[in-house]
Amino acid sequence: MSTKLQALVNGRVLERGDEGYDAARSVWNAMVDRRPRFIVQCRATSDVIAAVRFATEHALEIGVRCGGHGIVGHAVPDDGLMIDLRPMHDVHVDAERRRAHVQGGALLGALDLAAQSHGLATTAGNVSHTGVGGLTLGGGMGWLARQHGLACDNVVAFEVVTAAGEVLRASAESHPDLYWALRGGGGNFGVVTEFEFALHSEPGNAISAELHYPPHGARDAMRRWRDLAPDAPRQATMTAILGETVSLGLVWVGNPERGAGYIDDMAAALSAVSEPIARDIAPLSYLDLQTRDDDIEGHAWRRYWKGHYFAELGDDAIDAVLARDGDGPLNAEIQAYGGAIADVGDAETAFSHRETAFEFVAATKWTDPADDDQRVAAARAYAAPLAPFASGAYVNALTDEGDAGLTRAYTEHKLARLIAVKDAYDPANVFHLNQNIRPTVSRA
Ligand SMILES: Cc1cc2nc3c(=O)[nH]c(=O)nc-3n(C[C@H](O)[C@H](O)[C@H](O)COP(=O)(O)OP(=O)(O)OC[C@H]3O[C@@H](n4cnc5c(N)ncnc54)[C@H](O)[C@@H]3O)c2cc1C
Fold this sequence. Notes:
- The chain is built from 15 helices and 18 strands.
- The chain is an alpha+beta fold.
């Protein structure tokens, strides 16, 4: 069967025992250890079409891999066919039109680098080895989002291979229902072989500012930090990191003098209620900002997350965030939304919860499989008391929650509309290894 498949595609087809097979099936989360029957290393859209058609003809489950950073590892199907898009990693910038044509397997670092070489950028996530594919299809939060919207808000067109093996262009003019669904609906509707992004002028100056507090002495400063968020300039994304210390601050992307002035004001406001034990304020280039967490968020660890969106972060919620017992390598990060994210009308994209004020993610990493249960339980135990304060969740931060997770990620109305688009483009649920929007037939 593999010879037949290999004859249909330009890229390599890998099976168990082939050189490169194990590297190709391993993803960011080392908990994911699945063995596809075939890995098709796609070189062109025609390879993707052939792989989709072959898989459907032979009833093989399809996993779609871009950066391999999906926490659940849906990209890797056990005994199925993995569409490995990584050889399709080109980024072409049209500086005059301010557009980036990004192949479906590109990583964020390639997009940032290509755009910045023209003094341009668009919203991308905070770790450069994350895939453009999964991040953008789920929404795509990043340091530029409060100025320019989520990554998905900047996509003007998608080239998509559908479940029927057809190539479509989805944009405001062409298949607008699909265009709507691809901006937040995840990998449910087809394989995106090219994203066309709008780019923005971005000279590339950033500042990172963190004021560190002891975990048990951070409450008042954190309330003050929270109060500053609604009026913060769009260049500022408020951040809180809860690790050995509680670090309150922001990331600034924009005019450095204005940034330094705003950071002084923020530091003065926080210090007035509670003096920090240390502070780190550092200017850096935008590209350095986009890669600074690459090592700490590196591969080969076992990982688990639990996330929430908060439309508001009340005093009780702050107390619950701070009530962590500091057990083991368990961290949480909070990032402010708002700004241009909330400018986009709720009905315009599948992405929900544009009213989000803050995103919370509890994350843990470890190496010994014997610790799996304990580490997963610790992250869940941290996030559970926060659930009553939550307004929803980010689809790209969902783990193993099934349909219950989908109802946290999408409003009822959006879910109904997503099911209608699924019915139109993938009624047999060919693309189901994802946070799955099941078509009507499989709901009966
Ligand atoms: C270290 C790290 C940092 C992160 N930082 C951020 C951040 O700053 N902002 C943010 O918003 N999110 C962030 N995330 C979450 C991230 O958006 C998701 O993990 C996302 O799924 C990663 O996409 P990927 O392409 O790397 O993963 P993959 O595992 O390759 O893909 C995940 C899923 O997306 C779908 N998919 C991927 N590419 C395509 C495609 N071309 N066509 C169709 N379907 C596709 C498939 O269903 C696939 O199973 C981060 C994750 C990690 C691990």
